[in-house]
Amino acid sequence: MQLYLIDGTSYIYRAFHALPPLSNSRGLPTGAIYGFTTMFLKILRERAPEHVAVVFDAGGETERHREFEAYKAQRPPIPETLTPQIPYVYQVVGALNVPTLMAEGIEADDIIGTVATKAAADGFEVTIVSGDKDLFQLVGPAIQVYDPMRDKTYRVRDVEERYGVPPEAMADLMSLTGDAVDNIPGVPGVGEKTASALIQEFGTVENLLRSVDRVKRPRLREALKVHAEQIRTNRTLVAIRTDVPLSVSAEALRRPLPDWERLRDLFRELEFTRLLAALEGAQQEMR
Fold first, then answer.
1. Higher pLDDT, 67 or 236
2. How far apart are CA 33 and CA 161, in angstroms?
3. Is 170 found in the same domain as 78?
4. Which end of the chain is more exposed for a tag (fewer CB within 10 A), N or C?
5. How many CB atoms are located within 10 Å of the residue 250 CB?
6. Predicted TM-score (pTM) of this structure
7. How many Å apart are CA 12 and CA 82, to the nearest integer?
8. How far is the C-alpha of 226 from the C-alpha of 33, rounded, in Å?
């Protein structure tokens, strides 16, 4: 059995920044809606997942914000031209009859982590559709990450080849390098290569900090000592949770047939002429 989990919030933003400004005749911005919709329809058409869900951030304060006040504090407000598009993305997903997963105060990554790991334990082959490297820590024998914009699938060996550490050590690596996207500071002077070498040698950041006097380079050793508390905080911040309280099961995410009329009405309103024509063909194929 296959389960596809789409990182919806990530792809709204990626579509928004990847495409030139588009709008319909009423002046409604539509670029992010169009980019997200074409990506999602391509996944459904080419991969034909048996089970699928789209996961969104619901917003609001999370445990990470309470743990670290500066978490994501550098992020600008949602662009004015993106704001009116987000409800339409939700409508497209709804018209496709694909389940949407979101929960107030819980980040999309943690929902993905919880559903993916439980589904894998239940015998599903899970594909997470995202370009976010944070999700690489979830990769395992039954979980892979697919980035459709790069047409690249990341399995265990791909993560190891790219970062020099296995997926389960990605959170340790990122606790040393930090994450600029989420405003998580790294250890000064520690880049990806140095962090990878340290994790390869010591296994985990906790082992590293307990054995920090074994670090040969004096400046690096001192930096690790000075920033030990931040490293431990970072480890908590970057680690994706796999235990959030959710009542959904992978089996309940079986892919249904779309609401063709609702989709047709949406595409007409948005003036997605090409998608409207493709929709007619898809409906004929699925009859």
1. 236
2. 34
3. no
4. C
5. 23
6. 0.91
7. 9
8. 46
The token duo for 177 is 């390098």
253, two tokens: 């995410």
pLDDT score for 287: 46
pLDDT tens figures, 178-191 = 988 777 889 999 99
CATH code of residue 217: 1.10.150.20
Helix ranges (DSSP H) in 140-272: 156-163, 170-177, 192-202, 205-210, 218-226, 228-238, 260-270
* The token pair that represents 279 in the structure block: 């929709």
Phi, psi of 236 (to 5 degrees): -70, -40
**pLDDT, tens digit (0-9, with 9 covering 90-100), for 32-58:** 999 999 999 999 989 999 999 999 988
Asked if 108 and 54 sit in the same domain, the reply is yes
Checking phi first, is residue 47 left (phi over 0); if not, alpha (psi -120 to 50) or beta? alpha
Residue 119 in tokens: 């589904």
Between β-strands 51-55 and 2-7, what pairing exists: parallel, antiparallel or unpaired? parallel
| Separation CA 165–CA 148 (nearest Å) | 24
Strand ranges of the sheet holding 100-101, from the earlier edge strand across to the other edge: 100-101, 51-55, 2-7, 125-129, 143-147, 152-154
Longest dimension (CA), the chain: 69
The answer to whether residues 7 and 108 belong to one domain is yes
Tokens at 227, concatenated = 């920033």
